[in-house]
Amino acid sequence: MTIDKSWTKIRRRGSSNEFWNGLQHFLQMAKPFVNDRGFIKCPCRRCLNNVIHQLEDLESHIFRNGFMFGYNQWIHHGELASANAGTTVAGPSGGIHERDEMFDVLDDIISEDADEDAVGGPSSNDQYDDLFAALRSELYPGVSSFSSLNFLVKLMHLKVLNKWTNKSFDELLKLLKLAFPKIDLVESHYEAKKLMTKMGLGYSSIHVCKNDCALFWKENSLKDTCPVCSESRWKLQSGKRSGKNVPHKVLRYFPVGPRLKRLFATSKTAKLMRWHSTGKSKDNDVMRHPVDGKSWQEFDKRHPQFAGDVRNVRLGLAADGFNPFGNMSLSYSMWPVVLTTYNLPPWICMKAEYLMLSLLIPGPQYPGKDIDVFLRPLIDELKELWVHGLDTRGAAYENGVFRMRAALLWTVNDFPARSSLSGWSGQGYRACPTCNEDTPSMRVIGKTAYFGHRRFLATNHHWRSNLQFDGRTERKRPPRRFSTTDILEQLRRVKTSIPGKHPNYGGVKRKRGDDELNWRKKSIFYELPTGLLSS
Predict the structure, then answer these.
(1) How far from the centroid of its chain's Cα atoms is residue 177's Cα?
(2) Cα angle value 462/463/469 (rounded, 5°)
(3) Cα(354)–Cα(352) distance, integer angstroms
(4) Distances, alpha carbon 129 to alpha carbons 57, 58, 59, 133, in Å
(5) Are the beta carbons of 359 and 303 closer than 8 angstroms?
(6) Are 96 and 21 in contact (CB under 8 A)?
(7) How many angstroms separate the first and last alpha carbons of the chain?
(8) Can you give the pTM of this predicted structure?
(9) Residue 97 · residue 19 · CB < 8 Å
(10) Cβ–Cβ under 8 Å, residues 148 and 134
(11) What is the C-alpha to C-alpha distance for residues 265 and 284, in angstroms, rounded to an integer?
């Protein structure tokens, strides 16, 4: 008898019913040949029949890594025994049960592991085994329409859409367990969240000094006191640390790379990520997307290698503070830092589902000049994405793997937030970041007023000679445009300040020297290899 093995050569395993059904028949045929402990050799491309696993683990290994090359006679998995016994083994078209829709989701998540052409070969990460176990499990005996994983994902989705509290979610799970004792479901929201994090797109919790001096991250991750002000990392009770370590502040960091890779995981969004190269306005006088602007074109001229691959990602950053407690009298300022992807068309790139939350900066005080402390993880990742890039499988490119790079083009914010991000103070006689040291200003009844706006008009404009503005004719030209070299020379004269708000360290107020102009610091954005075109 001939066994159909064509399914083992299928590349797009996640979207192929033929591969799924063939794999199920292979596992059914191999089931009688496990050893006394339930183990059998694994023929995936990583294990190569050299490692034994339990039979249920073979499903996730083969699905993730693919079936090994050259293993044409399944001597370790019952082919000869089945042939000698005259047993009929069904082909892939039969199917054991209908393939769960969550397999397509998992295929997107582990796309690089599932791609036989991925750089570096198949992954050795077994984090998806629990997901496959939940996917194989029926929600309830006799219910084949829902796997345990499928039901849990939909339940978590309802929680988010309807803003259920964690406690209400726990109560719902208890009720389901009580009403349906045989239901295969997690016990609590904590367990559900723990399982969902294995699907990717989670976040990292980074402890922060209570005075915003430093992050307890990387070289400071094991320290119990701030390296700047020596304050304790943990909340203290009566001068002593409580039984459980509770940090003063926690920064939530959402890595950018995995989220950008997910945009290329499905053919629809992968195609939209190329829109900026084909959707430019044909009318030179119309700007409907940043790709039509001078800044974008200037960036392409500066970095032709980056611009040569239309799949490379252009990002914009927005940050501002808000009070999460709404109309309550409590004063609190939390700062989300959001990234938008300008590769996408204008009717999509500003939709909420395509905006990426990258940082959630805790309060209660606004970060101010210390925002650079919180931006450190994001800036380090952006530098990595620019210099080295990230191996990414593009669904719209016949499963090919390419090196995706990303660049931050500009920031979008109001004037106070711009002051925190750029380092140029928005107060005082030189508050204008465009006019810089040439800002025309004067003191009027205890406040600073800015004048001379007619200088931006054309030299022959009739308003320049109109005396109704201030009784004078405006003859000044528009303010000079400061070059990158000019700005860097100004920043070279700025004294290095200690971060944080501790009254004996970063919180000490100092008077800026005249040569420092309105600069309070050199922004962390100047560490980016590309620099920012505008903000």
Answers:
(1) 35
(2) 150
(3) 5
(4) 7, 10, 9, 6
(5) no
(6) yes
(7) 70
(8) 0.75
(9) no
(10) yes
(11) 34
Find the angle CA(156)-CA(160)-CA(166) to the nearest 5 degrees.
Answer: 75
Q: Which amino acid type is present at position 70? A: G
* Torsions phi, psi for 52 (to 5 deg): -100, 145
Please, is 492 exposed, middle or buried when counting C-beta atoms within 10 Å of its C-beta (0-12, 13-18, 19+)? exposed
Q: Contact 48/67 with Cβ under 8 angstroms?
A: no
Dist. CA 371–CA 358, nearest whole Å? 14
How many C-beta neighbours within 10 Å does residue 336 have? Answer: 17
Compute CA distances 463 → 28, 353, 440, 472, 474, whole Å: 87, 47, 18, 11, 8
Nearest to 250 by CA among 138, 399, 411, 361: 361
Residue (of 374, 326, 336, 375) closest to 356 by Cα position: 336
| Residue with tokens 């793997």, as numbered in its chain | 401
Instruction: Give the three-state DSSP class for 444.
Output: strand
How many other C-beta atoms can be found within 10 angstroms of the C-beta atom of residue 43? 23
Q: What would the two tokens of residue 256 be?
A: 């950018």
139, 183 contact by CB (below 8 A): yes
> CA 226, CA 232: separation in Å to the nearest integer?
6
26: tokens are 């292979």
Taking the C-alpha atoms of residue 452 and residue 455, their distance in angstroms, rounded to an integer, is 6
Q: Could you tell me if residue 516 is left (phi over 0), alpha (psi between -120 and 50 degrees) or otherwise beta?
A: alpha
Please count the other Cβ atoms lying within 10 Å of the Cβ belonging to residue 236. 11
Exposed (0-12), middle (13-18) or buried (19+): which is 123, by Cβ within 10 Å? Answer: middle
Q: Which amino acid is at 492?
A: R
Q: Which helix (H) or strand (E) holds 403?
A: strand 401-404
3-state helix, strand, coil in the chain (%, to 5): 35, 15, 50
Per-residue pLDDT of the chain (535 residues; tens, 9 = 90+): 567 788 887 777 766 778 888 888 888 888 888 887 788 888 888 777 777 888 888 888 888 788 887 777 787 787 754 444 444 333 333 333 445 667 666 666 665 444 433 334 444 445 667 777 777 778 888 877 778 888 898 899 899 888 899 999 999 999 999 999 999 889 999 999 888 887 777 889 999 999 999 999 999 999 999 999 999 999 887 666 666 788 999 999 999 998 998 888 777 888 899 999 888 888 878 888 999 998 899 999 999 999 999 999 999 999 999 888 876 667 888 999 999 999 999 999 999 889 999 999 998 888 988 999 999 999 999 999 999 998 887 765 545 678 999 999 999 999 999 999 999 998 889 999 888 888 888 888 889 998 888 988 998 999 999 988 888 898 888 888 888 899 999 999 998 889 999 999 888 888 888 888 989 999 999 999 876 554 4
Name the β-bridge partners of 410.
Answer: 316, 534
